[in-house]
Amino acid sequence: MFKSVAPKSCGVKPLVTSIIVLATLTAGARAAELPADRSTPAPAFTWTGCYVGVQAGGDFDRSSWGRSGNGMLINPFTIDASGAIGGGQAGCNYQMESFLLGAEGEIWGSSLSGATVVAANDGDRYAFQSHLGGDAALRAGYAFGRTLLYGKLGVAEASYAFQDTGPGFLSDTGRATYAGLLLGVGVEYALDAHWSVKAEYENIDYARSVFIGNPARPFDDYSSRIRNAENLVKGGVNYRF
Q1: Is the pLDDT score of 11 beyond 70?
Q2: Does residue 43 sit within a domain?
Q3: 230 occurs within a structural domain
Q4: Are 123 and 167 in contact (CB under 8 A)?
């Protein structure tokens, strides 16, 4: 008599389970080998910081001469002058959201000069020149990302030399250091985190000063009140720390 014997299991299920586990471990190992994404977002641009820079442009001036004292009659007149400027600046900014506050100092050399002949004053030739100036100002502005619009308010100072040459080449000379109110506007654009370029206009209204003639010729000595208004149009480059 023969007995029925059930076929033994071939172990298919354990084999499939082992394959699934092995595949899972392999995929995990490969994922671990991939480089992690370590990139971080770039920091937001800011104008906050200090800077130094250079500038160049044009210098335009109107000199107004008033009536004199000391018995000499000088009819009022004006002299228009122009020249080139070049110099440097340094300052610091602090940005609060889109608003900016800052302070800046500038110094420049100038080729400013002008002259005129006044027939009403016996045909005398009057001339003046200014070769050095500087200012200290506060800046306030509004930033549109890398573009900054700003205004300036400060005090400027410049040295002037004056000359009155009459018939027979008799000459009176005088010098004065002017201090005046500075008002300005400008726009600055940041090329990157450090470098920026700017364009700027400044108006400087200098206080009146007294021109003193030649004391060696008392008969021809006089004083005249002279007022100068200076306009600077310039471009520049700044480097921020």
Answers
A1: no
A2: no
A3: yes
A4: yes
From the list 63, 79, 48, 51, the residue with the least C-alpha distance to 240 is 51
Coil, strand, or helix at residue 44?
A: coil
CATH code assigned at 169: 2.40.160
111 Rama class: left (phi>0) / alpha (psi -120 to 50) / beta: alpha
Domain count, the chain: 1
Nearest-angstrom CA–CA distance, 93 and 150:
11
Instruction: Report whether 90 contacts 105 (CB < 8 A).
Output: yes
Which two structure tokens, joined as six digits, stand for 173? 């000379």
Q: Is the dihedral of CA 207, 213, 218, 222 positive or negative?
A: negative
Which range has the worst mean pLDDT, 4-13, 79-88, 103-112, 117-126?
4-13
Please give the residue range of the domain that contains residue 127.
54-235
Burial label for 226, CB within 10 Å (0-12, 13-18, 19+), is: buried
Residue 160: count of CB within 10 angstroms of its CB: 24
Interval 78-88: pLDDT, tens: 999 999 999 99
Per-residue pLDDT tens over the stretch 28-61: 545 455 455 566 666 789 999 999 999 999 999 9
Question: From CA 29, how far away is CA 13, in angstroms rounded?
Answer: 25
Q: Which two structure tokens, joined as six digits, stand for 153?
A: 């308010």
Residue 120 is given by DSSP the state: G
Of 128, 124, 113, the residue nearest 75 (C-alpha): 124
The answer to whether the predicted template modeling score (pTM) of the entire model surpasses 0.90 is: no
Q: Is residue 204 part of a domain?
A: yes
- As a whole number of angstroms, the distance between CA 189 and CA 198 comes to 6
**Residue 17 resides in a domain:** no
